[in-house]
Design brief:
Blueprint: H1 2-17, E1 51-59, E2 71-79, E3 89-98, H2 105-111, E4 113-114, E5 118-122, H3 126-139, E6 152-156, H4 171-179, E7 198-199, E8 202-203, E9 205-212, E10 221-229, H5 243-246, H6 251-254, E11 264-273, H7 279-287, H8 289-295, E12 303-312, H9 336-356, E13 360-361, E14 367-368, H10 373-385
Parallel strand pairs: 5-6, 11-12
Antiparallel strand pairs: 1-2, 2-5, 3-4, 3-12, 7-8, 9-10, 10-11, 13-14
């Protein structure tokens, strides 16, 4: 019992300590000229009520021993209305390229509601995370509108750096991420589910950004969180600059597990807004994540699982029994600014993820270079001078 308690404490400390890096350098501070006005935190948590939690697992080094490590993985969770509020939210999802997984989306499509948190982890931990969310929900009385639960859990593959077949994400790790979710700054880079991810041949991971519309456009906020693990090095484009071609992969690095100029990997994009949108409109919003992704150079290759979900924190009680319930919605004629905000925030969230992720060495000494800040600043300055 004592060992179990110590393990739980260690997991909680790991989850909390991962937030220390939330104030590190971000892409804007390196001179990247993004479009649009961000919210105060430039994060998905600028949407009131949204809370984010994560557990980061980094252990061991050297040769891969399945079941022992090295371990470079974790889990990230997003609560639409915070962990204390189980009120479902309107939602819509979209698969740009389906070589990936996001559980629970058939019910999102059918019902139009997201009934719990969204979790993101590595490919081989999806089932464990799904089951852990159900267990946590039962424990905390969060089984809401029906006596069963269909959690939304998404994944990207971290097997180049992590002992993915060692199944190192445990129920306690998921509980820790759920229990420590909060508003405020969101950790980026090699944290949570993004710990072992690679993006455009550089170290990837979790990233976030937001946009605030003008009063004339409704004054709404759009926030995005991504777990990026996609793209080829030569594709990477930042603010229109071909950064990937300017920083080719070192020969030694490219000879590791993954050829850094092959388009393998995935990206999960979570879009939140306080704009009152219906499920069909939120599906349209989720689709715009594709355009933000394309701005960074991706073509969504065959091996990529590019799956997106969008939800609205407006219309509380929309699923209240017995109904009927009154809801509000933005006119389709006024939805375009929300599309633009989604595109802009998605682009910036992806770049923020790479900027925040330092060079990492994982299994069998595989090393993935972090996006070099000095070189990125130099390329942005040269672009501005033209």
């Amino acid at each position: 019992m004592r060992n179990r308690t110590l393990t739980t404490i260690a997991v909680l400390l790991c989850a909390i300590s991962s937030r220390i890096g939330a104030a590190e350098v971000r892409a804007r501070e390196l001179g990247v000229p993004f479009e649009g006005k961000p919210g105060p935190l430039n994060a998905i948590t600028d949407v009131k009520g949204v809370e984010v939690g994560d557990t980061t697992l980094i252990r061991g080094e050297g040769k891969l021993v399945v079941g022992k490590g090295p371990v470079r993985t974790g889990v990230t969770v997003i609560f639409p209305r915070g962990r204390a509020n189980a009120d479902p939210v309107y939602a819509g999802w979209f698969s740009q390229n389906g070589n990936g997984e996001m559980t629970g989306t058939t019910w999102v499509e059918e019902s139009g509601f997201l009934e719990g948190p969204v979790a993101i982890t590595n490919t081989h931990s999806v089932g464990l995370v799904r089951d852990a969310i159900i267990a946590w929900s039962v424990k905390n009385g969060r089984i809401a509108t029906q006596p069963w639960s269909l959690p939304v859990v998404a994944e990207t593959w971290d097997g180049d750096l992590n002992d993915i077949n060692g199944f190192h994400v445990k129920e306690g790790d998921v509980f820790a991420a759920l229990d420590t979710a909060r508003s405020g700054p969101v950790p980026e880079g090699s944290v949570g589910g993004g710990t072992g991810m690679i993006c455009y041949g550089f170290k990837g991971g979790d990233g976030t950004a937001s946009r605030v519309l003008t009063t004339e456009e409704g004054g709404y906020t759009v926030g995005v969180l991504v777990q990026c693990n996609c793209g080829r090095r030569s594709q990477l484009t930042i603010a229109g600059v071909p950064v990937g071609k300017a920083i080719p992969a070192p020969v030694a690095q490219a000879s590791g597990s993954r050829n850094l100029d092959q388009d393998v990997g995935s990206i999960i994009i979570v879009v939140a807004t306080d704009a009152p949108l219906l499920p069909t409109q939120l599906k349209r919003l989720a689709r715009r994540g594709t355009m933000g992704l394309a701005r960074t150079g991706s073509v969504s290759g065959n091996s990529s699982g590019d799956i997106f979900i969008a939800f609205s924190t407006a219309n509380p009680g929309a699923d209240r029994e017995p109904g009927p319930n009154s809801v509000q919605t933005v006119s389709n004629e006024r939805i375009t600014p929300l599309f633009q905000a989604t595109v802009e925030a998605t682009e910036e969230a992806i770049v923020n993820a790479m900027v925040a992720a330092p060079t990492m060495t994982g299994i069998d000494g595989h090393t993935v270079q972090g996006l070099p800040h000095d070189r990125l600043k130099e390329l942005m300055m040269k672009s501005a001078e033209r």
